[in-house]
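Workshop exercise sheet. Pairs work together: one partner reads the sequence aloud, the other fills in the structure field after running the prediction. Swap roles for the next sheet.
Pair: D.N. / O.F.
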Amino acid sequence: MARIKMIPSGDGEFLEWGDVFCAYLGTKADEWGIPEAAVAALEGFRTEYRRAYTAAQNPNRGKADVFAKNEARAAYETDVRRFIQEYIAFSHLVSDDDRILLGVTVRSASRTPVPVPSTIPSFTIGTAVLQHLSIIFHDENGAGEAKPFGVHGAEILWEIRETPTENQEDLTHSAFSTRSPYKLSFTGDQRGSRVYVCLRWENTRGEKGPWSAISSAVVP
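Structure field:
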């Protein structure tokens, strides 16, 4: 399928493009598993850019108004591009037809094939914040890089248990994270409980790699 232009160069066209993008996103974000906080942050950048753009169109505008508009556009555009890379461009939940309706570039079908994940996530469990555990993960062979090529994110299984286990089927809670760290929250009466955790990679086509070994930490 042909590539389509993504971010318009004109300020007014960019504002209109963003309105279309966010309107369609609002109807699909839950279905695509996009966090509400990420959508709200994007809307905040769009609102600020609209305000600054409107002020810069005033015939009585000053240099400060134009500067503020340029700064607001840069911040909004940076967040839009990050958002697309993280949640839209490589997600198997988002179809090419959806991308076209969003106004996002449709990637060529001749791109390098995405492999099934063959490595396991290396991870540590942070305990610095009360009633929270931070799952900090990265590619075991990636020299510090968070994810292998073609991987969309990590599937996380966890469970509070009184006895150790080496069986992933004993971990009944699940989550999915496209970015490290992933934070687990607990209640006050769960402090002191031991939580068992394991991870595996999932690529942009929804294909999954092998599970890591199970590790554990105590809720602070």
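Discussion prompt: The chain has a mean pLDDT of 89. What would you look at next?
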